[in-house]
Amino acid sequence: MRALRRKDRDVPIFAMTADAFVDDAKKAREAGMDAHIPKPIDVDVVLNELRKHLK
Question: Is residue 27 one of the residues assigned to a domain?
Fold first, then answer.
């Protein structure tokens, strides 16, 4: 998505997966994700990431 020539390509992309290992978060970021949020979902984590990326 980041490689597309669209004006909305800067929209934040969050990976939400059951994979909670540090390596999984690293792989998600390398793939272009802005954040990695592991399951089970912690609402505070989601809200913090939204605040950080939606200024």
Answer: yes
- Measuring CA to CA, which residue among 42, 38, 49, 44 is closest to residue 13? 49
Domain count, the chain: 1
Residue 19 lies in a domain: yes
Phi, psi (degrees; rounded to nearest 5) at 49: -65, -40
Per-residue pLDDT 10s for the chain (55 aa) are 778 888 888 889 999 988 888 898 899 999 889 999 999 999 999 999 999 998 7
Upper half-sphere CA count for residue 13 (Cβ side, 13 Å): 12
